[in-house]
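Summary for the steering committee. One of the milestones for this cycle was to obtain a three-dimensional model of the protein with glutamine bound, which we needed before selecting residues for the alanine scan. The sequence and ligand used are listed below.
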Amino acid sequence: MARATKEKKKRGFLLPRRRHKYIFVIGGVMSGVGKGITTSSIGTLLEARGIHVNIVKVDPYLNVDAGTMNPTEHGEVFVLKSGLECDQDLGNYERFLNRDLNPEDSITSGMVYQYVLRKERSLGYGGKCVEAIPHVQDEIIRRFTAAAAANHSDVSVIEIGGTVGDFQNALFIEAARVMHMHAPDDVLFIMVSYLPVPDKLGEMKTKPTQNAVRALNAYGVQPNVIIARSDKPLDEKRKEKIALFCNVAPEAVISAPDVESIYDVPLNFAKDGLDALLLKLLTFTGKPLSRPGLTAWKEFVRKSKETRRTVDIAIVGKYFDTGDFILSDAYLSVIEAIKFSSYAQGLKPKIHWLNAKDFEKDRVPLASLDQYDGIIVPGGFGETGIEGKIKVIGYAREHTIPYFGLCYGMQLMLVEFARNVLSLPHAHTTEISPGTPNPVIDVMPDQVKKIANARMGGTMRLGHYAANLKKGTIAQKAYGANSVDERHRHRYEVNPKYTKRFEEAGVVFSGVSPDGILMEIAELPESAHPFMLGTQFHPELQARPLRPHPLFTAFIRAAANRDAAKR
Ligand code: GLN
């Protein structure tokens, strides 16, 4: 306790009460309007005022975690340091808070029900009839408070997935209502709503928001703040209308028009005084700090907007045949990592999506790859488009186009090398070809049983592991360190039986697990190729606006050099 008080004093912000505060963020009208970015931005703003925030995502689906979902269903699967596979929003939270999240910060209905049902099976409810209310609701509240405790935070910002009126998030809203009932001064509700501007009318309509607030009122919850998302800024007239009909103060209706970059949002909210408003509503008094966090953030945003040279980066993906699914969602962290490392070097990245299958079927000539400054093969699973990816990698190797392979991208880089340099034409990963005569990528021994028993959820090699770096290599120079800690998500690895042959033919394993068994980074020496490097881990998961990832930075530098050479 004494330490916590000292800490808070050091941060210059004295909390009037020791009571923890909760801000619930709930969506109105429809999904996909930026609830996650709003939540993240509130985190950035409060942290910048010297308040320690944790952000929690509630995903109302029944999957226990996001790991078993196809990215086309759900977007990227983000992996926390602990190894928990979760929603991509947690990636945004980490990027906006500039720190690692805890596993308690992700809550799904699956986790909640799994816990309750297991407890019931072991007589944990002492013979009671187990019901959604109160037992499931209690478990939800327990998880909200556990997340706050695990983070030692002052404020929890909790984003409830889905939209008000959904069946599946109702219990979470009910849990929040009960928390508010017990401590009305310590619990706030923010509704992120959407105001359409129908083409034919050319006028912004507030009615859907009014209805969404009424739907929330039906749960017994009144929002304290409404974030009004729209194409355009909110005018005074509509602000007053929303205030009047939704029962909130006009200054608590915050205009949130579309912006050029998601990283503008915290700055726009600060301009509108959202941080001061939240502090007032949460009854924080005392002298707020200056905003140390926002200085660096502003500098990052300023740099991201400087006029600059373009680098053309191609990402070879496979999630194309999926209707309206937005491809960028499947590779969100990769895209953000490219941006951070480009902005830091005064470059503007242009991302080109290449469909691996186009190269497989020769629908697109390989020579078209010459127009790009760098190529990435990101993480993936399964057979689709794999031969196309291998062809692209071979072309990048032979034509010295900077190449960065992320997990599957490293495995396939070695398959290509084995086939075309080691002259093992049937070399493969056993994920695709279990009977290959040359299994250069093979299943990790501890995975065999799990796969045989279909124990697939949360059983990959997940989360952070250390790797030692080999001196003088591209990776070691980029990191400027002798060892690193990176996040993983895979079942297959470089087959130790082949490492020697790879090395003899010029591959350098520049990152190796501390026990020397697992090859975590593979690269070709600079004398052979300007940048041909793959990682068994996912470096993109640790790239942050205020801390670009060193390997992405090195890759983008190589890409920019190629661009310069082309000119
Ligand atoms: N499918 C590969 C494996 O399981 C690669 C996984 C990935 O790219 N994340 O090892």
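Key point for the committee: The first helix runs from residue 2 to 10.
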